[in-house]
């Protein structure tokens, strides 16, 4: 069974600092991985996805993530945090059930950006 | 593109009443839609997978008679919470999958969510 683990339920960075949100996966088959962002009282917005093409994936809002098979990781980074990046971030893995693919989400990481 | 809407965005109802939540894919056809439930400060829990024209597939522990799902068209799925009780209060989020192959690369696009409060 596939699963993801997000290390750190809460991360705080200063504006302009590097953002690093950690995600490790467990999968018996090559995984497809996603990062979503959720702002308060809103649905989820796709930031980026890895689908076995390039291991370094660039997403929206300056975010990127690198798939590292040897470390079973898919950490999300952004060189310089902005106040508007404050939100909840979810890592997810696609689970193929045969007739449909389902997403299994991590527990989320709340990013706080301070002045 | 790939916009998913939900209606209503919030609803307050009395215990014992039923509430219907609509999920629409606005600019694409979604053969599959998903319904999630999210408790405060927690992750999303998949409730059911809805395929157009067929019965929904419910996750273990989700009462199918309690949470009725209908996916009558390629752009609309509805979730009806029947005889709602305070413990059903939650944030309900739908997603729609843009149909592509292979399926595991499909991207799910999420609606803005519906906050249900049962008094």
Architecture overview:
The complex is a heterodimer of chains A (115) and B (119). Chain A is mostly beta strands. Chain A is built from no helices and eleven strands. In chain A, the strands form two sheets. In chain A, strands 2, 4, 5, 9, 10 and 11 form a six-stranded mixed β-sheet that branches. A five-stranded antiparallel β-sheet of chain A has the order 1-3-8-7-6, with no helix packed on it. The mean pLDDT of chain A is 91. With 119 residues, chain B is mainly beta. Chain B is built from no helices and eleven strands. In chain B, strands 2, 4, 5, 6, 9, 10 and 11 form a seven-stranded mixed β-sheet that branches. A four-stranded antiparallel β-sheet of chain B has the order 1-3-8-7, with no helix packed on it. The chains are: A mainly beta (115), B mainly beta (119). At the A-B interface, strand 5, strand 9 and strand 10 of A face strand 5, strand 9 and strand 10 of B.
Please tell me what the overall shape of chain B is.
globular
Report the C-alpha radius of gyration of chain B, rounded.
14 Å
Q: Tell me which protein chains meet in the greatest interface and how many residues each side has.
A: A-B, 23 and 27 residues
Helix content of chain A: under 10%
Q: Order of SSEs of chain A, N→C?
A: EEEEEEEEEEE
Mean of all residue-level pLDDT scores of chain A: 91
Number of helices of chain A: 0
Main beta sheet of chain A, described?
6 strands, mixed
Spatial gap, N to C terminus of chain B = 37 Å
State the total count of DSSP E strands of chain B.
11
Mean pLDDT rating of chain B: 89
Quaternary state, please? Answer: heterodimer
Q: What's the shape of chain A?
A: globular
> Nearest-angstrom radius of gyration of chain A?
14 Å
Count of extended strands of chain A:
11
């Amino acid at each position: 069974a596939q699963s993801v683990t997000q290390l750190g339920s809460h991360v705080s960075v200063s504006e302009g600092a590097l953002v690093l949100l950690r995600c490790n996966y467990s999968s018996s088959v090559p995984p497809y991985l996603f990062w979503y962002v959720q702002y308060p009282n809103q649905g989820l917005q796709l930031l980026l996805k890895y689908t076995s093409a390039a291991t370094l994936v660039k997403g929206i809002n300056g975010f990127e993530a690198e798939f590292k098979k040897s470390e079973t990781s898919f950490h999300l980074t952004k060189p310089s945090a902005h106040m508007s990046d404050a939100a909840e971030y979810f890592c997810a893995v696609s689970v193929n059930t045969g007739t449909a693919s389902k997403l299994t989400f991590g527990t989320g990481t709340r990013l706080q950006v301070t002045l | 593109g790939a916009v998913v809407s939900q209606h209503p965005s919030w609803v307050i109802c009395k215990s014992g009443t039923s509430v219907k939540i609509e999920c629409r894919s606005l600019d694409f056809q979604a053969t599959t839609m998903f319904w999630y439930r999210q408790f405060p400060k927690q992750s999303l829990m998949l409730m059911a997978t809805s395929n157009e024209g067929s019965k929904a597939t419910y996750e273990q522990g989700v009462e199918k008679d309690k949470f009725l799902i209908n996916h009558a068209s390629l752009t609309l799925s509805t979730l009806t919470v029947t005889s709602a009780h305070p413990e059903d209060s939650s944030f309900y989020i739908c997603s729609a999958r843009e149909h592509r192959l292979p399926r595991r690369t499909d991207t799910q696009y999420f609606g803005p969510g519906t906050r249900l409060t049962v008094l």
